[in-house]
Amino acid sequence: MKLANYLSASWQTGAGEGQTLFDPVTGEALVSVSADGLDLGAALDFARQTGGPALRALSYAERGALLGKIAELLQSKRADYLDISLRNLGASESDASADVDGAIFTLKSYARAARALGDARHLKDGAPVPLAKTDIFQGQHFLLPQTGVAIFINAFNFPAWGLWEKAAPAFLSGMPVLVKPATPTAWLTQRMVEDVVNAGLLPDGALSIVCGGARDLLDHVAETDVLSFTGSADTARRMRTHPSVVAASIRVNIEADSVNSAILGPDAAPGSAEFDLMVKEVVREMTVKAGQKCTAIRRILAPAATVRALGDAIAAKLSKISVGNPRSEGVRMGPLVSKAQQAAAFAGIAALKEECDVIFGGDPAAFTPVDADPAVAAFVPPTLLYCAAGLAAKKVHDTEVFGPVATLIPYTDTMDAIAIARRGKGSLVASVYSADSAFLGELVPAIGDLHGRILVVNGSIGNQHTGHGNVMPTCLHGGPGRAGGGEELGGLRALLMYHRRFVVQGDPALLAQLSVNAADAALLTA
Ligand code: NAP
């Protein structure tokens, strides 16, 4: 079966044989996708001219209600999505839940938040600015929804959440969406779009999807569009420098790869609550979705005196994780999504081994997955490495192995821990396990500018924290530098990407007239 694309409010099948999507456990061919021969320029025009105006005829609250209906619909079809996740991503129920339930949770969060903006259709930003000696001439800033298309080019690891975490704030802002999911796992995104379209929840042109290569998509961007990309740093560079993107100066948001760290405080001796919480979190991050999360822990920093004990504790827990076919009883970790990803992970492990000792796993030949044929399946054994070189190492800080792989690194003192965390050159997240306020007071501000999020866990928080890798819709997601420099989510802050700020200079009566039915932009950060 070839999946249809939905463009210009019609289902369209790409030409040719297309690319095949596979089951990464059995190697079975599932469906195919093709974008060949499709008129993507016309699809973007249709979305700009039809979908956008229809969405912007609604208030923020009305658009929020639409998000609530989409969430309800997706909830009602959850079983179908878990089945596609199992077949196309080799995802266990809990791995698929991170993606599917994460998407529904995020939509609901924005549906709720939209109520604060009420019947408004644009935003007033700050108080009037005096511009003359009397009040007769003033300036007023406003935020208007952009009138183009929100174009999403997404990564393979979150086909559900990756669409809806972006679409929720875009729709709420009044922008139509065109999504291009990553080819290997496009099926789930396509099915969700098909369900929403068939339910008639959105106006024509509000939601479009193109599956497959779609390499000329960016040739057709216009100055009012927004491009939001999630994927590797190499592809991000190509997006940012695409001639049409540069010529139109469109707003570009990049969520790229990241060599995130988890840091054990000097106070967290073996047996302390903080030590145990870190062991649990590292094991979870390495094994959930087989480590295929942009936020996963890649570098584990610990005081030189504690690092070996930490490694032993993590390895002991990893040894109890059963890896194999998620359809089998007792299996805790599934495969990577494709043989290509498996090959990339093996190459990454080999590169890291040039600088590291192996503490656990690390040898594909010595590993047999449960209930799967290694010749066709895409499994990678959980692998814990140790790098004695610390800050002087190179590959450990530069290589993101997108799988169940992490490296222990000893640090000598707080300054060394700070330097190693910063050596990631910009990360999505760092987590710190410590109750030492002097250490935290020095470390957190010293790494904040190079991290989008810092999770600090101590014994009193215990298991109530939301997790190193979990992205909460109410908190910022994105990171500087290597992580792409993007910002997503953060509650209503996310709407800023889909609005443009402008200032009107004129007489106070006009400014007051334009301010009628405008919500206060301060609500976005309230
Ligand atoms: P990728 O190879 O860079 O691909 C990402 C997307 O770009 C795919 O949809 C791909 O389509 C598309 N693409 C590639 N070249 C293109 C071009 N010339 N024109 C238009 N589209 C193009 O990344 P990936 O392998 O899917 O994802 C893994 C990476 O994503 C990891 O490095 C991970 O860290 C990162 N990631 C980051 C975040 C975050 O939030 N920061 C989240 C998830 C993943 P095709 O599939 O059709 O090639």
From TrEMBL:
Top-level taxon of the source organism: Bacteria
UniProt-listed InterPro entries: Ald_DH/histidinol_DH (IPR016161), Ald_DH_C (IPR016163), Ald_DH_N (IPR016162), Aldehyde_DH_dom (IPR015590), PaaN-DH (IPR011966)
Domain Aldehyde dehydrogenase residue range list: 12-438
This protein's record includes keyword Oxidoreductase: yes
SUPFAM superfamilies on file: ALDH-like
Alphabetical keyword list: Oxidoreductase
NCBIfam families in alphabetical order: PaaN-DH, PRK11903.1
PANTHER family registered for this protein in UniProt: ALDEHYDE DEHYDROGENASE B-RELATED
Protein name: 3,4-dehydroadipyl-CoA semialdehyde dehydrogenase
